[in-house]
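Because showing beats explaining, we think one record worth quoting, sequence and backbone structure tokens together, and here it is:
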Amino acid sequence: MPETSAQPRRATIRSVTSPRSAAQRAPASREAVIQVRGLVKQYGTLRAVDGIGFDVFRGEVFAFLGPNGAGKTTTCEILETLRAKTAGDVRVLGLDVKRESDAVRKRIGVLPQDFNAFDRLTCRENLAYFAAMFHARPDLDELLGLVSLQGKADARYETLSGGLKQRLGVAIALVNDPELVFLDEPTTGLDPRARREAWDVVRGLRARGKTLFLTTHYMEEAQALADRVAILNQGRIAALDTPDALIQRYAPGQTIVVKGGAQASLPVKAEPKGQDAIVHAPTSKELSSALVALARTGLGLEVRTPTLEDVFLHLTGQALEQEPAPKPEAPKRRRRAA
């Protein structure tokens, strides 16, 4: 077709930045409070955990991520002394989780994903009940203040919002002043505001010197909170490092999202993602060249800084949907362990 004098539409370019990584904070101690070496868990012919090893250091937030069926719940339950290992050496706070399980439980706190408390008891009464169960005598007002529930001390559990219930769960997990706290999907089902408030609670616990072992399906959450991240896939650890280091290694550069570009004829190499197209630009020079070329299309452009989600998808691939989940006998999970 002959050229016309009509000017092409100007592309709209929007930049999207990633959440601030916890790796920018002061490093935690190098004292290992969790030591895992050659951990194996076998269910018949299925090896749910396949010889993994890692350390968790005192004072850090350690995020443990993986697609469904990757083995992360099994690993967590072994660390919490709720499930027996098949092989390997697992020590929590210097204690063997099999031979010294009672001693381990006295020094850890657990907020399980399915946490629940007594509906007709108040926040203070629930805390007092669990404290008595574990022979602890905490300052209840201090615990309520730690999770910003001092104004709800006399409110029944059944009247609390989902976010406030999770805060109470964190407080209950702290009744014995544990050195190590396991948080299993602590913000699942919460609205964005309640989720951010829960993040503040986690940061406050870290500031008090607690070590936190976090499992979550929210990559933004792990990137914002964790000092280090382990990504588990098919029973093995695919990567372990700080969020920033993982992003730099597995998802360098930036990404251009071409709005509505999936079916368009684009001047640069792209891959479809729904209705849009994705262009990867590992270097600033490639980013500039791609933007110049794409600007003439008139399509909306969005420049994204890579995130931990990009790393997760790169490392797990189709395992997110294809990996079979183990079907072991499920132990009865406690509301918390002390």
